[in-house]
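Could someone model adenosine monophosphate with this protein?
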Amino acid sequence: MNIILLGAPGAGKGTQAKRLEAARNMVQLSTGDMLRQEITSDSALGRKAKGIIDAGELVPDGLMIELIAARIDQEDVRKGFVLDGFPRTTAQAEALDRMLQKKDLKLDRVVEMKVDENAMVERIVGRYICVKCGAGYHDKFHRPATENTCDQCGGTEFSRRTDDTSETVRARLRAYQEQTVPIVSYYRKKGLMKSIDGMAPIDEVTHMVDEALG
Ligand code: AMP
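Reply:
Sure, complex below.
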């Protein structure tokens, strides 16, 4: 099964994509994670993307389409994929259609996680992850049981994304409204859209995603 998780920054796409990876043996394709890896490895793309990401803007379509096309070429994607953070513009959605058609793949479902965008600033600004295992935490909503120690792996080093500041989050939410929301109707016309309540507790959202996928 090949799906897209759609939703504003902070809606919980990454969390649900990871759960789908574990439960359904799908591959998470997170363009945000891919870009952060490019930045860490100091590649030409990473250097171009860094300032754009920290300003909360979108990386140009051409670069994103190239990045995802190379990833979709890899064999593991055939198990089924969860796109998380792509497409973010109509041009990206159209390019994705062409890419999948060429590879004889098809999209089965687009799940929109609807959230109250005003609540997203607080959700995003407080979040951090364990450097060792990637487990997610939040200053207010989900602190480790023992202060500064990861519940999952015992790690003691944590990190925050450089674009998770309140100013950048507001720019990211604006970019979502202006450039990404139009693709909801693009997929609705194709009959692929299901919308769920992304404000529900995480386990409930997982259940709703599961139902939306059938
Ligand atoms: P994310 O981890 O999905 O929140 O993405 C972090 C940042 O990476 C975004 O705010 C954008 O600057 C950039 N980015 C990720 N995916 C895309 C995309 N599909 N198109 C344009 N920019 C993207």
